[in-house]
Design the sequence.
């Protein structure tokens, strides 16, 4: 269905090739996942399928890409719209109209589908994706998962034979991601659609994949094959696979269910080394780093937070979890003084962050927003660091030093926009951390991060907590939460529904439990690292 | 269900035609009757209040009302500072007079300000304000996106540019507030000129990014696909439409102000219409597009159009018959009369409020019934 014939691609003014001699064939009716670290050319590969690369991006492409028998050499993306449906990383930015129903019809209007057929296909798509309740809603009012499903629906109505998706679940909470993936699986099974998608969160997509394409980067050739083969050696792997490799399971389990069948022996073996529940009688620490008392936040008639009480303690990493729109960001914004709550009081370091002057605020609390790029506006990394020293009234060089500690080797002459996601996050972190605020707040830091960058983030955050910072982190990434959190707080509809030691909270939740906890339940193990340590401690 | 049925939305052009009629009604005379102007404004506000939906643009009337108020104030202030002197009447106060050289004799600065001149200026300001409010009313009643769908195929590309701009505004406001907050987090004050500059860079970057993403998405979704037709046909279509519109505009100017263009107004209008028609037909053949659930023109649309025509017709008729109170002068100072015919006509224009029930009000009124039905 999709065929790459010796394809090489170079962006204009780029020093090296982004794709090098790629030959690949994806048969009809397969769900194929492209994996690899950031910056290896996954998105470029996807965009080459419908000709956005090179028709839209510029650059030079050698070789041929054929999809459904049409070559992208002769056909521009718009002429392939009835064969390939392309859904980009940010669905909201790709919406052209303002209402769900119009958006669903947009592609068909462009192709010139007859009105009667158009009406029928819109209804079919609405049923197929389960978006009946959304049809008259304005697109901007939808939640992340709904937006993603509408974006898929909007390309589906043109009845393409291939669907290309770039990180369809990266911004979604676990439940919404499940919804989207189930919808995709249904399209593959019922309609015989060919799906090609890139995804960093392998733990989510692996059970659905028929085939993996590993893009190793650095000029190494592409590897494609069935998941169990590719996963044996892939550099990017979800915790489940790491556990399988560690214990030496064969065949490698791809789903939690497969793993549980093989896990009985392991569970019994490491049971004696089990972590006891976190000691409840923890030493009472001194004054909390921050506290919220009866905090309520309203957006018009919408209650974002309703009477929340929370104390943030120093030396702890607190993870906030919950659905999209459950009030996590509102809570973080209130903590960082971005908005005065409608009710209740916020105290950070003894005073109200909202009334602090900007200069004082940054010495008390540092917030890294969902898009770290919002913090950056300099011409280069070096320029950015100098500006930060200047505005924060620090010794020249402080921010640059902090950056070196957070992530060594960030090129200082590069423009912040040209950095990788991980490097950009590190730069934003360094800027926020340079004035040494006792409280650090991060909103959804793992979007677009690959596994090595996440490892680095975990190290940094643990290091901060151990040196007496208080860290608050809102995330959908249960695997990250399992590795970094001391305490987990789950929000739903603006209320705290559970709050306690991370191990208890996540292990007892079917939605927020990490893969290892699911495999080894009812024992409470969280990470591969813990299992590894336990195995080492067992006398042989 | 007690006869409750879902209304289909009104054709966007019907509302625009209605609003245009009221604007033209307000433009009838050069020295208008303030009571008639106020009545037109009131009718517009009433219809908007009872027919508008619950969308972001539905509240734009308030903005236009405010702009109208500013227009009146500016008009009066200019009159006080630079107005024509020598109008006899009740002197309100006297500003210091600045003598100007003889070549600028038509302009004067300061001097005695009379009640008559201020009133005249205020009414002229009110006329412009009412025309603005007409546009505001049309804006509040019609989704800009749905209006754009009424555009003929050849203007479709221009329409899409407007769509992008429209969807861009709310995005821009969100980005600005996000960037302001982010800057506070970096310890930078967000006020003042320096604050503005730092905000502009990330906001514009975000804007560019978003436009590129949108363009990518539109291309990938088949925007701009066309039937096989030569580039020359395409050029002729676009040229004819554009040229036609230009001729039409110039011609209309000639028609309205008979002194200019040596009476060429009507012929120019005719030529413009013909050119537009040629362009639209050629262009329409070129596009392979189709339209999803196009708006229909039915009884309620005819009703709305007729009510607007009643207002403008009654005004024009009264003007032609020289009904007392159509042209009002404040010299000598007197209370303007209220002519019956135009008042009746303008009140007819309020009928859409009864023909078209508000979508918002309808759903709210329905809720208890629905809940009762569920229970």
Sequence:
């Amino acid at each position: 269905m999709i065929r790459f014939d010796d394809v090489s691609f170079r962006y204009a003014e780029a020093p090296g090739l982004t794709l090098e001699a790629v030959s690949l064939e994806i048969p009809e009716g397969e769900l194929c996942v492209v994996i690899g670290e950031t910056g290896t050319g996954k998105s470029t590969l996807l965009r080459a399928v419908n000709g956005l690369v090179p028709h839209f991006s510029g650059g030079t492409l050698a070789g041929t890409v054929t999809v459904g028998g049409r070559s992208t050499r002769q056909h521009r993306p718009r002429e392939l719209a009835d064969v390939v449906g392309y859904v980009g990383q940010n669905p909201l930015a790709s919406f052209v109209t303002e209402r769900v129903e119009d958006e669903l019809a947009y592609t068909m209007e462009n192709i010139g589908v007859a009105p009667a057929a158009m009406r029928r296909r819109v209804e079919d798509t609405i049923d197929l994706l389960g978006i009946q309740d959304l049809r008259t809603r304005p697109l901007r009012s939808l939640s992340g998962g709904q937006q993603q499903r509408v974006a898929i629906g909007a390309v589906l109505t043109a009845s393409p034979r291939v669907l290309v998706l770039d990180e369809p679940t990266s911004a979604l909470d676990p439940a919404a991601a499940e919804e989207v993936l189930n919808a995709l699986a249904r399209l593959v099974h019922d309609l015989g659609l060919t799906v090609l998608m890139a995804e960093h969160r392998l733990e989510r997509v692996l059970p659905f994949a028929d085939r993996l394409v590993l893009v190793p980067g650095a000029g190494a050739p592409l590897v494609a094959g069935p998941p169990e083969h590719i996963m044996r050696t892939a550099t990017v792997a979800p915790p489940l696979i790491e556990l399988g490799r560690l214990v030496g399971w064969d065949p490698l389990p791809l789903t939690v269910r497969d793993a549980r069948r093989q896990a009985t022996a392991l569970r019994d073996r490491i049971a004696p080394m089990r972590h006891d529940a976190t000691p409840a009688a923890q030493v009472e620490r001194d004054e909390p780093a921050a506290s919220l008392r009866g905090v309520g936040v309203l957006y018009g008639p919408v209650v974002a937070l309703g009477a929340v009480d929370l104390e943030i303690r120093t030396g702890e990493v607190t993870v906030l979890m919950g659905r999209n729109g459950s009030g996590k960001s509102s809570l973080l914004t209130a903590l960082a003084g971005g908005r005065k709550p409608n009710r209740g009081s916020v105290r950070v370091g003894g005073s109200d962050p909202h009334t602090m002057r900007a200069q004082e605020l940054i010495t008390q609390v540092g917030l890294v927003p969902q898009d770290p790029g919002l913090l950056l506006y300099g011409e280069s990394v070096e320029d950015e660091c100098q500006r930060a020293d200047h505005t924060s009234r620090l010794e020249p060089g402080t921010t640059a030093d902090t950056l070196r500690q957070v992530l060594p080797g960030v090129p200082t002459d590069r423009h912040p926009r040209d950095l990788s996601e991980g490097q950009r996050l590190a730069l934003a972190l360094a800027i926020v951390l340079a004035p040494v605020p006792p409280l650090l707040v991060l909103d959804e830091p793992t979007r677009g991060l690959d596994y090595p960058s996440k490892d680095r983030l975990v190290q940094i955050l643990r290091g901060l907590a151990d040196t007496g910072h208080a860290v608050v982190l809102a995330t959908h990434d249960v695997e990250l939460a399992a590795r970094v959190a001391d305490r987990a707080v789950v929000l739903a509809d603006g209320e705290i529904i559970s709050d306690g030691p991370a191990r208890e909270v996540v292990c007892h939740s079917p939605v927020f439990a990490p893969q290892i906890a699911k495999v080894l339940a009812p024992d409470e193990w969280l990470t591969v690292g813990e299992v590894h340590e336990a195995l080492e401690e067992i006398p042989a | 269900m007690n006869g409750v049925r879902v209304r289909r939305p009104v054709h966007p052009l019907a509302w625009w035609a209605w609003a245009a009629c009221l604007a033209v009604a307000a433009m009838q005379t050069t020295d208008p009757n303030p009571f008639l102007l106020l009545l037109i404004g009131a009718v517009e506000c009433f219809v908007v209040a009872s027919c508008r939906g619950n969308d972001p643009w539905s509240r734009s009337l308030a903005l236009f009302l405010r702009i109208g108020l500013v227009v009146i104030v500016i008009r009066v202030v200019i009159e006080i500072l630079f107005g024509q002197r020598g109008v006899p009447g009740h002197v309100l106060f006297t500003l210091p007079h600045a003598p100007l050289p003889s070549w600028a004799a038509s302009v004067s600065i300061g001097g005695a300000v009379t009640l008559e001149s201020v009133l005249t200026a205020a009414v002229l300001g009110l006329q412009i304000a009412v025309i603005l409010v007409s546009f505001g009313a049309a804006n509040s009643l019609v989704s800009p996106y749905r209006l754009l769908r009424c555009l003929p195929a050849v203007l479709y590309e221009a329409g899409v540019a407007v769509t992008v701009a429209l969807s861009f505004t709310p995005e821009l406001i969100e980005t600005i507030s996000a960037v302001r907050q982010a800057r506070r987090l970096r310890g930078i004050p967000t006020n003042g000129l320096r604050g503005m500059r730092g905000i502009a860079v990330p906001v514009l970057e975000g804007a560019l990014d978003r436009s590129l993403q949108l363009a990518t998405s539109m291309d990938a979704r088949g925007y701009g696909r066309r039937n096989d037709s030569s580039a020359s046909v395409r050029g002729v279509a676009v040229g004819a439409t554009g040229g036609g519109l230009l001729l039409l505009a110039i011609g209309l100017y000639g028609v309205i102000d008979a002194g200019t263009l040596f009476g060429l107004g009507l012929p120019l209008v005719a030529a413009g219409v013909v050119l537009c028609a040629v362009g639209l037909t050629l262009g329409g053949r070129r596009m392979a597009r189709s339209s999803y659930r196009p708006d229909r023109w039915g009884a309620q649309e005819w009703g709305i159009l007729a009510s607007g025509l009643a207002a403008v017709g009654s005004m024009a008729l009264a003007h032609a018959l020289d009904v007392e109170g159509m042209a009002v002068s404040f010299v000598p100072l007197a209370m303007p009369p209220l002519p019956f015919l135009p008042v009746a006509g303008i009140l007819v224009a309020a009928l859409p409020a009864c023909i078209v029930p508000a979508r918002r009000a309808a759903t709210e009124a329905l809720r208890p019934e629905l809940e009762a039905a569920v229970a």
Summary: Chain A has a mean pLDDT of 88. The longest helix of chain A spans residues 174-191. Chain A has two domains: 2-236, 290-518.
